[in-house]
């Protein structure tokens, strides 16, 4: 359907749609003007930002920005800074406005079926606003192939709907903290979708495709979502990407087959002084990006990288404004041309003639042969290219204002002799060895000798693997089809008995020993430590063997071609060292309790807390012990942590067992200070054991025996920290559901203690 026909439903807007109010800025710095749209589907105010220095009639892109609940165009423009980017890049920005007359919270009604289809409700109003601006050519020149829509929260959910209902208007869409198409069809379902996600995204992908109707096409999508968004939970970001994968799969006649779990690229990033993030992309079979997903670590419900001058922004995140603009400019409507190259790059003996073909044939091809990236200023292709030396060819095709991706082919012209490889190469072996000679070029003749003399063209011609049964010097060279001759190479194959040496040797030792096995030639050692005879199915030696108790090592060597040596045996008697116990008290200045997302650590009270707050937030405590008091070089055998209940109040008994996490050796957040970030800081190991009881009385003790895996994180050179928490993070009962334990500040007999047994 032509754009003219699509505009027929909104002809009235030419009379009613452009009624300007007082501009918000002077033309020299860009103008922000309010208008009112009236159409058959309804009426809404909207703002248009015209960038500084824009010349009326100049054709530029248009980006539609849909605000979130309780926001308005001015607030949204301030927060996203899209107008400032428009000044730099020269594009028009349109801000449709939802009013309290249509939603009490000024949210776009993305959850109402009347506002989820083409031709009615808010989608028709927003499309009508776009068409009004496009048709007002006296003020703006809009490139119809570069019209985009982006939104935040409810506006993001509506941008998804616009992509599904008007794919013929919007080239691609941007979604910040939104939801999939028809994630809900009622206000009640909307609340559920925000926290739990919508229906199956494959099902909703089909629904979005159905909504496209005859205008169906692949709609590239860029999605931003914070991993700590508890307004619109992160599952919704995943569902948006998956929904559009299915929609685009159907719209591409099943040629686009992306898998959510197998992105084309996955990149981790870090904003300087801000948040870390992961960016994933999914490409079609031609290498064109279709979906882009930014997951911002620890960000809540906000516009990533936005300005604090607007609401619902997180200045610490990567700029969603810049990323969406870049994505949009790379995804206009229309099909970019493609290039075919024949023959493909590769290795050729002598010159090669290369032909370039564009689709459509009307496209102009530009190329370079010096490795630089071609532009429209590069040489225009006019006929076959002949390469007589190694060349990297790069080419682009340009048609109707669209440019193909750069095609790169490297042609290696062979003017040197072949490379001959002996397998295995010369070395020491424990018996006969079969040697194969091969060339990196086909149709190569190889000549060789085995008596140490230099081979010539009259020497033996290689035709099958050579079996060597005694020490031999093999010399060889090759001649390729172009009569290029390689240099003579030499390999020495030494045949001798296989011998494995153990260090230290068998004997009686006080304390564990680290036994190193050495083979007198390249190969593999197999061993057992239980006295049984080793085979090739036994353990393969890869590093020193720790012998902690009396045992007999048996082993044999096998060379790289399969010859095996005799089984050898070494018996070790180990007299274990005595075990010592040290008891350490928690450090008062470093222990305390913490909430997950707000507040400051509490570290100066006589008690610690763990459990669930009245706000249903999990609460944890941090313990810290000076484990540098354990002698250096000691082996930790076991350990326990003991806590004592401070009082009998508050805990309701519904959070399960008490458990510990142990910090990395540098402490939580790589230091020993009590900090709010310790709550979610990376641990060495989590849930390293459960305390033997949940104490019910004041001063009652409870003890956690540390798991063997946790012992490796006890820091003999500094402090060791533990994170105390219940098995369940919250009881969700809106009550104070916590248990108090004595802290290091209590200073009495009930201070938390770490007991360590070591040798």
From TrEMBL:
InterPro entries the UniProt entry points to: AB_hydrolase_fold (IPR029058), Esterase_phb (IPR010126), GH29D-like_dom (IPR059177), Plant_Biomass_Hydrol_Est (IPR050955)
Annotated GO MF terms: hydrolase activity
Region (Disordered): 255-284
Signal peptide residues on this chain, from the entry's feature table: 1-27
Keyword Hydrolase: yes
PANTHER family noted in UniProt: BLL1128 PROTEIN, UNNAMED PRODUCT-RELATED
Name listed for the protein in its UniProt record: Esterase, PHB depolymerase family
UniProt source species: Ktedonobacter racemifer DSM 44963
């Amino acid at each position: 359907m032509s754009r003219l026909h699509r505009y027929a439903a909104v002809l009235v807007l030419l009379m009613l749609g452009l009624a300007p109010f007082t501009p918000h800025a002077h033309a020299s710095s860009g103008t922000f003007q309010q208008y009112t749209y009236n159409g058959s589907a309804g009426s809404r105010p909207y703002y248009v930002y015209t960038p500084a220095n824009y010349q009326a009639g100049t054709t530029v892109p248009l980006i539609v920005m849909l605000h979130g609940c309780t926001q308005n165009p001015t607030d949204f423009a301030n927060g996203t800074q899209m107008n400032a980017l428009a000044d730099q890049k020269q594009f028009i920005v349109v801000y449709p406005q939802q009013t309290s007359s249509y939603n009490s919270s000024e949210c776009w009604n993305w959850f109402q079926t009347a506002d989820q289809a083409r031709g009615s409700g808010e989608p028709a109003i927003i499309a009508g606003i776009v068409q009004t601006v496009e048709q007002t050519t006296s003020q703006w020149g809009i490139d119809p192939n570069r019209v985009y829509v982006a939104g935040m929260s409810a506006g993001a959910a509506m941008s998804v709907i616009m992509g599904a209902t008007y794919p013929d208007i919007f080239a691609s869409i941007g979604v910040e903290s939104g939801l999939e198409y028809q994630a809900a069809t009622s206000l009640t379902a909307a609340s559920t979708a925000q926290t739990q996600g919508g229906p199956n995204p494959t099902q909703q992908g089909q629904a979005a495709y159905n909504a496209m109707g005859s205008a169906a096409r692949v709609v590239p999508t860029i999605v931003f979502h914070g991993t700590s968004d508890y307004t619109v939970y992160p599952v919704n970001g995943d569902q948006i990407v998956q929904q559009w994968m299915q929609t685009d799969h159907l719209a591409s006649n099943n040629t686009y087959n992306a898998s959510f779990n197998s992105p084309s690229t996955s990149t981790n990033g870090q904003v300087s002084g801000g948040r870390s993030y992961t960016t994933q992309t999914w490409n079609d079979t031609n290498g064109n990006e279709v979906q882009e997903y930014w997951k911002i670590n620890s960000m809540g419900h906000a516009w990533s990288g936005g300005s604090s001058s607007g609401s619902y922004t997180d200045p610490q995140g990567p700029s969603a404004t810049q990323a969406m603009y870049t994505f949009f400019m790379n995804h206009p409507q229309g099909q970019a041309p493609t290039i075919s190259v024949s023959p493909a790059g590769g290795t050729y003996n002598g010159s090669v003639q290369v032909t370039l073909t564009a689709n459509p044939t009307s496209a102009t091809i530009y190329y370079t042969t010096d490795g630089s990236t071609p532009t429209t200023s590069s040489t225009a292709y006019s006929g076959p290219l002949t390469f007589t030396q190694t060349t990297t060819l790069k080419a682009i095709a340009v048609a109707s204002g669209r440019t193909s991706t750069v095609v790169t082919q490297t042609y290696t012209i062979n003017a040197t002799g072949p490379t001959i490889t002996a397998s295995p190469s010369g070395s020491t072996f424990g018996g006969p060895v079969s040697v194969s000679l091969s060339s990196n070029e086909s149709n190569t003749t190889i000549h060789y000798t085995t008596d140490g003399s230099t081979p010539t063209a009259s020497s033996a011609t290689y035709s099958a693997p050579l079996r060597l049964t005694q020490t031999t010097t093999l010399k060889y060279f090759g001649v390729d089809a172009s009569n290029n001759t390689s240099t003579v190479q030499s390999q020495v194959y030494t045949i001798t008995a296989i011998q494995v040496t153990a260090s230290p040797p068998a004997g009686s030792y006080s304390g564990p020993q680290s036994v190193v096995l050495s083979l007198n030639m390249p190969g593999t050692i197999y061993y057992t430590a239980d006295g049984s005879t080793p085979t090739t199915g036994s353990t393969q030696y890869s590093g020193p063997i720790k012998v902690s108790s009396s045992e007999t090592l048996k082993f044999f060597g096998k060379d790289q071609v399969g010859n095996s040596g005799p089984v050898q045996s070494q018996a070790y008697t180990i007299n274990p060292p005595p075990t010592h116990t040290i008891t350490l008290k928690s450090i008062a200045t470093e222990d305390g309790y913490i909430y997950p997302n707000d507040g400051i650590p509490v570290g100066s009270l006589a008690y610690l807390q763990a459990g669930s707050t009245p706000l249903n937030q999990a609460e944890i405590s941090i313990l810290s012990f000076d484990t540098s008091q354990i002698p250096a070089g000691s082996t930790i055998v076991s350990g326990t942590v003991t806590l004592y209940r401070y009082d009998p109040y508050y805990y309701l008994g519904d959070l399960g067992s008490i458990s510990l996490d142990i910090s990395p050796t540098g402490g939580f957040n790589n230091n020993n200070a009590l900090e709010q970030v310790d709550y979610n800081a990376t641990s060495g190991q989590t849930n390293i054991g459960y305390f033997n009881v949940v104490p019910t009385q004041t001063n009652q003790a409870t003890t956690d025996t540390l798991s063997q895996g946790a012992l490796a994180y006890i820091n003999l050179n500094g402090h060791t920290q533990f994170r105390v928490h219940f098995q369940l993070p919250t009881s969700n009962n809106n009550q104070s559901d916590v248990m108090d334990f004595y802290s290091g500040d209590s200073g009495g007999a009930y201070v938390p203690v770490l007991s360590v047994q070591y040798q």
